[in-house]
């Protein structure tokens, strides 16, 4: 899975039905992507991660907090935004695509070859 933006929002909510409502409100409030949703204790507790640009994640988390008025504020256990998470956090969330890393390595090799050969056009104009 590729990273979407530079921030993540983490929600922990009591009950699956509450989670569906809260996440729906968050997704409608801002342009963020649902990264994961895990149910534990038979749906008694749900852990959800959203990702996007910093301002979008903040807006989505604010909408999630506001939805506590409907589902009960005590049912939203965690509602946090993390701007520019450490690389290891992205790995924890499995949001670093191995192919993305491999392509960066390959791109670096291509640029090395261009430097040695003078680049693609070799200084000639073929207009």
TrEMBL record:
It holds the Pfam family BMC. CDD domains: BMC. Residues 7-94 form the BMC domain. GO terms for cellular component: bacterial microcompartment. It is found in: Bacterial microcompartment. Gene3D superfamilies: 3.30.70.1710. Residues 99-127 are annotated as: Disordered. Its main location: other. Keywords: Bacterial microcompartment. It comes from the Bacteria. Belongs to the bacterial microcompartments protein family. PANTHER family: BACTERIAL MICROCOMPARTMENT SHELL PROTEIN PDUJ, PROPANEDIOL UTILIZATION PROTEIN PDUA. This is BMC domain-containing protein. It comes from Lacrimispora xylanisolvens.
């Amino acid at each position: 899975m590729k990273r979407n933006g530079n921030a993540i929002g983490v929600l922990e909510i009591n009950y699956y039905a509450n989670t569906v409502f809260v996440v729906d409100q968050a997704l409608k409030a801002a342009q963020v992507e649902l990264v994961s949703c895990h149910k534990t204790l038979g749906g008694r507790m749900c852990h959800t991660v959203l990702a996007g640009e910093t301002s979008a994640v903040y807006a989505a988390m604010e909408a999630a907090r506001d939805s506590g008025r409907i589902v009960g504020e005590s049912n939203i256990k965690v509602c946090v935004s993390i701007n520019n998470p450490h690389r290891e956090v992205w790995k924890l969330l499995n949001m670093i695509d191995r192919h993305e890393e491999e392509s960066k390595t390959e791109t670096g090799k291509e640029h090395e070859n261009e430097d040695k050969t003078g680049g693609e056009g070799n200084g000639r104009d073929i207009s």
